[in-house]
Amino acid sequence: MEPQRSPLLEVKGNIELKRALAKAPSRLPLPGSRLKRGPDQMEEDLEPEKKRTRGLGTKVATSHPRATALTTVPQTQGQTAVPKVPRKTGPRCSAAIATVLKNQKPGPAVPAQKPGTTAAPPVVGRKKPSKRPAWDLKGQLCDLNAELKCCRERTQMLDQENQQLRNQLREAQQQATALVTERRTLEEELARMRAQAEQGQQELGNLSARVVALEERMTIPEGLVQELQKEQLELQEERRGLAAQLEEQERRLQASEAALSGSQAEVASLRQEAAAQADLLAKREERLHGLEMERRRLHNQLQELKGNVRVFCRVRPVLPGESTPPPGFLLFPSGPSGPSDPPTRLSLSRSDERRGTLSGAPAAPTRHDFSFDRVFPPGSRQDEVFEEISMLVQSALDGYPVCIFAYGQTGSGKTFTMEGGPGGDPQVEGLIPRALRHLFSVAQELSGQGWTYSFVASYVEIYNETVRDLLATGTRKGHGGECEIRRAGPGSEELTVTNARYVPVSCEREVEALLHLARQNRAVARTAQNERSSRSHSVFQLQISGEHAGRGLQCAAPLSLVDLAGSERLDPGLALGPGERERLRETQAINSSLSTLGLVIMALSNKESHVPYRNSKLTYLLQNSLGGSAKMLMFVNISPLEENVSESLNSLRFASKVNQCVIGTAQANRK
Ligand code: ADP
Ligand code: MG
User: Fold this and answer.
1) In the chain, pLDDT over 70 holds for what percent of residues?
2) pTM of structure
3) Which residues carry a binding-site annotation for ATP?
4) Which ligand 1 atom lies nearest to the CA of residue 416?
5) Distance between CA atoms of 314 and 376, rounded to whole angstroms?
């Protein structure tokens, strides 16, 4: 099978043929040109055909001259060979062209013979007649006629053939015209195809460029794809891990659920138990409350049995630089149960120089014995002292007014007992900070039983019957304006000091800050008036309020801690200069207020109808802490020095009087 040719090649073939055809007309004899040629020439033209006809024998019939001519066209006569017959031209056209071409290049020229020459013309299909003698003109004429006739026939035949050729030529021309048209069409087509090809090339170029660009772009996505694949692998790994985790979690969940159901059952039983316990707790709370109330009652009874007015004697140690008293000057005899008993007695020996014996020998010292609720010898520590009064602090929380005094001459240790020693050493902390710490801690414990406590502190000094605020701040600091003691309201039992600060406190630090402020205020005052602090009474008061919201119970009571002014008497032998006169006035004021305090205690003890509270600012301010239900404790501070024996005796006598007092039966201030 012949391979299928591309349309382009086919077109090219056509074009080549057309080119050959285009050249051909220039070589074609003009129509009718053969008529101009002589009979010889025609004979010459005819001759080869004859020869060929003869060579081919009878197979070539005269009725198909054109077919004969076509088949006998030599391919080797320098003619341009037609490589392929175009389909459109057809075999007839090719034959015509072949004939024309053949006629164009005749064989070797034969010189024309002049008529009448002896050369006899070839006779076709006849035997050459024998040469007639010259004289046989007739015979010659006859021959000539015969030849003429033959020629005529041949002419006629040639004319016919000529006509045929003309027809063929016309046909060929028409075909050529058609071919030219076709060629143009094909050329146009070619041009179009070329344009298309160019366009295709361009498109191909563009596509190649795009391919390159896409390939370039592909490199990035490839990297990305690799990365994504890697990531996918990682994610798959992670997923596997998570699935494993999930499984583990599910397993745990199941275990947890099992545990939970177990726990729920346990919870249910625990709830039952809790309900039972809550019931029990409520009963116990009820019982506890009953016990607490019972405790308060018994505590109070105990305090009453101990005495609502108690006196403790405290002897300070001999300070460095002071002369040691003679042995036996102060004695602390043991109690009935021996030395294990806390001391309650004190003996002071005084040698009266004025009393001499007749022999002139010094008289034996007079021994003065005193008995108090408790006696603290010089070595007693602050915490031992506080332990004895902590029960009273508890009473204050239970709703009983409590008042603690420190009485004694200047330098006997009153301030040391109430506020503490210098330097802020916790070992030497006084009663005020210890009492407040104890209050805060007990209030905290009682909050578990439903009690809520609040504390409000005030700190004033009474100097020369004037009241000043020791908690004054700002411009009033150290120069606190005069304060007045007033009733909180008409018909109210409660007293309040005008212009004084009442500061709510809830912790030790706040109390420390207040004591520090009071010390500062005293220090400023001291520079203004010499040693005023020892010439004035310092009154620290704490209003305690408790509430049991659940039971609608309330209690309120003041706790007063008083550092009294020096109880020493003015030496009557001293010359009265201007300074001494002032000092005398101070002393008189102090003595007056201290004796009023004694009188008030006596009146209360004797249950007198009139209690002279108003006789001094001190008793007036403290009246709510001294009356009926109040509990009072007086520290009598004694100097261990022999030189202070007179003042010590005075103090001890005053304290003994107080100690003999029994003030009513205390009633808790319940509302
Ligand atoms: P008052 O207030 O009665 O005037 P102070 O409390 O100021 O007396 O005491 C006078 C001095 O004695 C102070 O230096 C104080 O530190 C010291 N003092 C008082 N009592 C004691 C004691 N129990 N232990 C040690 N030193 C004390
Ligand atoms: Mg003092």
Assistant:
1) 73
2) 0.59
3) 408-415
4) 6
5) 5
